[in-house]
Amino acid sequence: MHIHPNAALVAIDVQKGFDCDSWGQRNNPGMEANGRALIAAWRATGRPLIHTRHDSVTPGSPLAPGQDGNGFEHSWSSKYINYVRRSRAVTSVSG
User: Fold this and answer.
1) Strand runs (DSSP E) across the chain, as ranges?
2) ∠ CA 43-71-21 to the nearest 5 degrees?
3) CA 54 to chain centre
4) Where are the domains of the chain?
5) Is a pLDDT exceeding 80 seen at residue 80?
6) φ and ψ at 54, to 5 degrees?
């Protein structure tokens, strides 16, 4: 596969708060392991990694700024992040 030399990897909302029970059963249990492999391979290319972080405005949300859940998943966070973009929106969990 050819990947353009100036391509960037964009990680969207890969945050600890999505592991909270309030979200229900996950449909992607291999995400962390696959993500670690992807990040390692991507970093080896020297291309940029861009993160977006959802900053919830919903009271009590684990994704709200200042909550532990607002942080990036451990396997995706590092001093090598090139750019972080924050997004704010109302979140809801339906059961």
Assistant:
1) 9-12, 49-54, 83-87
2) 115
3) 9
4) 9-87
5) no
6) -80, 115
**Residue 54, beta-bridge partner list:** 87
Q: Could you give the 3-state DSSP secondary structure of residue 77?
A: coil
DSSP string, 29-55: TTHHHHHHHHHHHHHHHT--EEEEEE-
| Strand-pair partners of 50 | 10, 83
Give the whole-angstrom CA distance, residue 60 versus residue 64: 7
CATH tag for 9-87 (out of 3.40.50.1950, 3.40.50.1370, 2.60.120.10, 3.40.50.850): 3.40.50.850
Q: pTM score, two decimals?
A: 0.67
Please give the mean pLDDT across all residues of the chain.
78
Q: What is the pLDDT of residues 19-43, one digit of tens each?
A: 888 888 878 888 888 888 888 888 8
Instruction: Give the bridge partners for 53, in sequence order.
Output: 86
